[in-house]
């Protein structure tokens, strides 16, 4: 890495723009970073003007983070290669379904010495019937080290500079410190841990539970029911990580990326909001995503499908009844009201096991 490190942000949605506000401020403030931060923007027209031009003149992402000023040293660039080619630190923050195409466009054009930080919550389906972490997709395609950042991080609240915590998962202490320097502010506090896969899996899996929490809200079932879904969801997240990413530490679930993200997402997130409307409106999830999110993207239903793809292939759907039920509700195979019947069956089985011991 050169002495002044260049940072590029790949993505400019709700979280991408919010993190650009932080990174831009830190890059301008700290000597170790080049103050110019390029941000790749998936170009679109807003009222006849290019979004990149609007951002570069008004310093506001009027579509995905309206009402918040970005630092002037954050430069919107419509071409991903142009944005990334000189960067030492690549911050990936696109909705997870777009990552394979983005990475493919960068192959051969980035610095081989670059390091990546993925803020992306989700998986990708993999050859052989399994799933891959998003960091693994980036690493495999671009052949660079990838750290992750996950936490209880509703983007709008962070843009409002309300106190929040986050977790960076990084295997290399030196890189972990550099990443912490570029991300941490007085209101956004970073913990660095080396349990990278567990940190990332937590970020992806909590979006499935958030969909379940939204169903509970749509069914008007109350706080106790929602707490039950959160508890069962946490248990399935732990079991999933222990089963598929051996060596993970239980303590990681107590970091911001674990239980804290699960709580915030089940109360304040977009997955919760759209899933609640799915129950009350009778419209499809795709329709509601368009209607309610103004171009922002839902991650939970697709993540539930990706996880189910692997569980089904491994004949393990019954080992993760909440994840499986939520997926089946999303694709219309079960009704939202079936959620509770399925959970009763599950808790009955558990009780019988305990009684039988
Ligand atoms: N928003 C949050 O509060 C939040 C917080 C933490 C983590 N995350 C995670 O960060 C990631 C990015 O979320 P976000 O909120 O920044 O995005 P978003 O949900 O606001 O998505 C909109 C973005 O997707 C882009 N886009 C649309 N079509 C595209 C295409 N074909 N190719 C590439 N990009 C396209 C849009 O230009 C826009 O930048 C997700 O994995 C999400 O789970 C989001
Ligand atoms: O709005 P959601 O449901 O995509 O959740 C946003 C963040 O992941 C919360 O940390």
UniProtKB/TrEMBL annotation:
Annotated GO CC locations: cytosol
Family membership noted in the UniProt record: Belongs to the NAD-dependent glycerol-3-phosphate dehydrogenase family.
Residue ranges of domain Glycerol-3-phosphate dehydrogenase NAD-dependent C-terminal in the record: 195-341
GO molecular function: glycerol-3-phosphate dehydrogenase (NAD+) activity; NAD binding; protein homodimerization activity
Name of this protein: Glycerol-3-phosphate dehydrogenase [NAD(+)]
Top-level lineage group: Eukaryota
Gene Ontology biological process terms from the UniProt entry: carbohydrate metabolic process; glycerol-3-phosphate catabolic process; glycerophospholipid metabolic process
Catalytic activity line of the entry: sn-glycerol 3-phosphate + NAD(+) = dihydroxyacetone phosphate + NADH + H(+)
Glycerol-3-phosphate dehydrogenase NAD-dependent N-terminal domain mapped to chain residues: 6-174
Keyword Cytoplasm found: yes
Keywords: Cytoplasm, NAD, Oxidoreductase
Catalytic residues (UniProt): 206 (proton acceptor)
Amino acids binding substrate: 121, 270-271
This enzyme's EC code(s): 1.1.1.8
């Amino acid at each position: 890495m050169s002495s002044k490190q260049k940072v590029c942000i790949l993505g400019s949605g709700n979280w991408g723009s919010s993190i650009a506000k932080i990174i831009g401020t830190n890059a301008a403030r700290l000597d170790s970073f080049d103050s110019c931060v390029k941000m790749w923007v998936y170009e679109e027209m807003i009222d006849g003007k290019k979004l990149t031009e609007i951002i570069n003149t008004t310093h506001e992402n009027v579509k995905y983070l309206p009402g918040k000023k970005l630092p002037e040293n954050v430069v919107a660039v419509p071409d991903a290669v142009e944005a990334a080619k000189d960067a030492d630190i690549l911050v990936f923050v696109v909705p997870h379904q777009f990552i394979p195409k983005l990475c493919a466009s960068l192959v051969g054009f980035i610095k081989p010495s670059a390091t990546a930080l993925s803020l992306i919550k989700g998986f990708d389906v993999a050859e052989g019937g399994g799933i891959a972490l998003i960091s693994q997709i980036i690493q495999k395609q671009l052949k660079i080290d990838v750290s992750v950042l996950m936490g209880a991080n509703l983007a709008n609240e962070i843009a409002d500079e309300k106190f929040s915590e986050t977790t960076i998962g990084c295997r290399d202490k030196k890189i972990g410190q550099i990443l912490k320097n570029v991300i941490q502010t007085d209101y956004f506090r970073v913990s660095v841990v080396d349990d990278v896969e567990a940190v990332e899996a937590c970020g992806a899996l909590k979006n499935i539970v958030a969909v379940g929490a939204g169903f509970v809200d749509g069914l008007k079932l109350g706080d106790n029911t929602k707490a039950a879904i959160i508890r069962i969801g946490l248990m399935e997240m732990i079991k999933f990580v222990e089963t598929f990413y051996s060596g993970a530490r239980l303590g990681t679930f107590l970091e911001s990326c674990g239980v804290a993200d699960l709580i915030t997402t089940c109360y304040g997130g977009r997955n919760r909001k759209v899933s609640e409307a799915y129950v009350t409106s009778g419209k499809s999830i795709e329709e509601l995503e368009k209607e309610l999110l103004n171009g922002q993207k839902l991650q939970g239903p697709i993540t539930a499908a990706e996880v189910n793809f692997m569980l089904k292939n491994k004949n393990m759907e019954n080992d993760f009844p909440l994840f499986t039920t939520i997926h089946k509700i999303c694709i219309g195979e079960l009704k939202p009201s079936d959620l509770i019947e399925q959970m009763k069956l599950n808790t009955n089985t558990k009780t019988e096991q305990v009684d039988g011991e």
